[in-house]
Amino acid sequence: MAILRTIATRLAHTKYGREAVESKADLGLFGKPPSFQFVLGLILLGLSYVIGWPGVVATGIAATYLKNPLIFVIGAPVIYGFSYLVWGVSMILMGRDNIKYVRALTRYGVRIFIEKFVSLPHCENRPSSCSSGSPSRRSNDREYPPSP
User: Fold this and answer.
1) pLDDT the model gives residue 140
2) What is the pLDDT of residues 120-136, one digit of tens each?
3) Would you call 34 helix, strand, or coil by DSSP?
4) pLDDT averaged over the chain?
5) Range of the domain at 12
6) What is the number of structural domains in the chain?
7) CA 72 – CA 81 distance, rounded (Å)
8) Distance CA 73, CA 88 (A)
9) Is residue 131 part of a domain?
C-alpha cells in the first residue's frame, strides 16, 4: 500500500494528475454509442490478433505434418504480415475516436487512483465528492504529502 500511495502522490503532483482530479474526469463519453466505423475498427483489431500468432502456429503445424518446411518459411511471414495489415486498417478506421476513448478512460482511472490513495486538500471540505474508495475511511485521515 505504501508503494501505491507514493505512486499516487507523485502522480497527483503532475499536471496530468491535477487536471484529471480538478476536471472530475468521468466516463461520460462512453454514454453515447460509438460510430459504425469505430466498431468495425475494433472488430478488425480483434481479428488481426486471431489471425497473427495462431496463423503462424498453424503454418508450423502444417509444415511439420506435411514434412514441407517451405510452408512455414513462406507461410508464416505472409500470414503475420497480413495480420499486421489488418491491424493497420483497424487503426485507420478507429482513427481519432480511439485516442478520445483511451484518453477518457485513462483520465478517469488516474483520478480514481489518486483519490483512493491520496487525501487531497480540496477533499477536506467535501468528503462526499472525494471518495477515498473505502467507506470506512474518511478522506482527510491522511495529510497531503509535500511535493517530492
Assistant:
1) 45
2) 555 544 444 444 444 44
3) coil
4) 81
5) 2-123
6) 1
7) 13
8) 23
9) no
Of the candidates 127, 116, 136, 101, the residue with the CA atom closest to the CA atom of residue 27:
101
Half-sphere exposure of 121 (CA within 13 A, CB side): 6
Helix, strand and coil in the chain, % to nearest 5: 70, 0, 30
Q: Are 15 and 121 within 8 A, CB to CB?
A: no
In-domain check, residue 8: yes
Q: Are 119 and 144 in contact (CB under 8 A)?
A: yes
pLDDT over 90 for what percent of the chain?
A: 35
3-state SS, 85-131, equals HHHHHHHHHHHHHHHHHHHHHHHHHHHHHHHHHCCCHHHCCCCCCCC
In-domain check, residue 142? no
- In-domain check, residue 62: yes
Cell numbers describing residue 1: 500500500
| Distance from C-alpha of 120 to C-alpha of 21, rounded to nearest angstrom | 9
Residue ranges of the chain with per-residue pLDDT less than 70:
120-148
